[in-house]
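Async update (no meeting this week)

Hi team, since we skipped the sync, here's where things stand on the single-chain job. The sequence we agreed to prioritize is pasted below, unchanged from the tracker. I ran it this morning and attached the output directly underneath so nobody has to dig for it. Comments welcome in thread, and please keep replies under the output.
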Amino acid sequence: MALAHLSLHPETKGAIARAGGIANCVALVNGNPNAPIVSQCCKTLASVAMHPPNKPLMAGKGAIKALVRLVQSVGPDNLRVDDAALACAFEGLCNCAAGNDANRNLIVELGVMSTVEYVCENWTDPEVLAGAAKLIANLAYGNVYTAMMCLSSHCEEALNVSIKKGGGDSNPDVREAAMMAFANLSNNESNQTHVGASGAIALAVKTLETSDDPKVLRAAALACASMGHGSFVNKTRMGDEGAIRALLEVGDIMDAKCAQACCFALATLMLNQLNQQIMIELKAMEVFVNLVEDTESMDVLLAGSMVIAALVPMPDVKKRILCEGRTLPIEDAGGKAALIRCKQWVFGRKSPPDWLIATLAIFDISEETALQEQYDREEEAKRVVSEDLFMDNRLVDSGVTPNQFQDEFYPHLDLFREAVADIRPAHLADSLVEMADKLY
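Output:
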């Protein structure tokens, strides 16, 4: 316990490793029959593993192997692994995996995933569930192989069970960690489809609707953004599940990081025309534009501008709309002014991104320009048909070319986050403190 408390200080983590603390803790984890001692040793290893230079030592000294074996030995007949020890073991593996791909691969190859799934589905202790979810999140972070191994062990279904047993906002760590895991698991199109079909989308939307914790809401919004990034299927699923309404309601809160995450999710969802129609039916464009114009956060202003840009059609579609005598709903809502504010405030001293320049150029297309181009196309069609009687003028009368799908506004990697299992000191009983005072 004393070593665990000492390891909480950043300056002691390296000293403990150099003094042989990792090897001694590993020996106790492997052989001590006392659950409280095993728990404190796991806590010490988890704390020491937060120091980056110690991460290779955790593998080299056998700490990762010992923690995996401890987790795998869990069961009703193993009294040396209680809930506290199991939670600390998960936290140790979580911190070993953070920022180290070699450790991620080692943990997965030691076969821990089936036990993680078993624990998620059968345990109710919130610290154990949060530790397991954080471990999944860190194993899947930026690594396609380990994410695939997690999915092959049905960890996404186990996370669904964990959330339902987590107790809502009374245990926010479980929900936040599970949402981070969903976001990290969705790191390619195949995995996105797999996670989206598991019920994760419905749980993410429900979390947005029911939680009041900003950290949980941010994690749920980033999960929606990650599952939908570049995935037409998941964008449609989220629209059907009510994600757009939920994100709009959450995005109006005062927490800037949470609002930015909601804007990221809306920006990717609005690249689906079906979802754009939902936005129109909710009559939310003007409200959203006002939110973007009034925000004082540069991050929210930039992310919100991405949503506005996603609602602007391609140039040919804009011209056709103008030729039909209609206007753009996002233009009527004041979207252009919001984008100009973004250009001036966020990119005042640097070049704006291509999507912002292109969107402002589309806003600048006038009705006169659209009508003149349509007239020129019609005249050209008549000339071509007059020269070739076999030419069908229907092929050239509209002049509208097929629109390509818009690219995403930000890299998928921006949505991934690693979890850190913060180590809390054990509560010292008053009698123990009095005894220590007498001894010293």
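Quick observations from my side:
The chain has 28 helices and no strands.
The first helix runs from residue 2 to 6.
Reply here if anything looks off.
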